[in-house]
Design goal:
Helix content is 30%, strand content 28%. By secondary structure, the chain is α+β, with helices and mostly antiparallel strands.
């Protein structure tokens, strides 16, 4: 029977152990897509004339894909140009379903 010494049982520090956290596994450049998704989502949700009952923003090569349900009174809201204002988004696949908007109650 072979005995394992303390150096073999603890692989930390010699580079052979897997990363403990997901952030350790990804270089900073690969963490960027989630930031882009969050910024696109924030930009779309901040628009006063756009109301989403659901919104999913997914990173694709060279841009984002938008999915969900958009409630608006506008004939054709330009969500693609809003998303393209975010740095790193060159292409937008718009898979949003547009539902007629309903009057929102007055605030206050």
């Amino acid at each position: 029977m072979r005995r394992i010494n303390s150096r073999e049982s603890s692989r930390e520090g010699n580079g052979s152990s897997p990363p403990r956290f997901a952030s350790e596994a990804l270089p900073a450049a690969q963490a960027l897509p989630h930031q882009i998704e969050q910024e696109v989502r924030r930009a779309l949700l901040s628009q006063p004339n756009l109301h989403f009952s659901s919104l999913v923003v997914r990173r694709i090569a060279d841009g984002v894909c938008l999915q969900g349900i958009l409630q608006t009174n506008s004939e054709s809201p330009d969500v693609c140009s809003i998303a393209q204002r975010v740095a790193g988004v060159n292409c937008v696949l718009n898979h949003l379903l547009i539902a007629p908007g309903r009057a929102l109650p007055a605030k206050g």
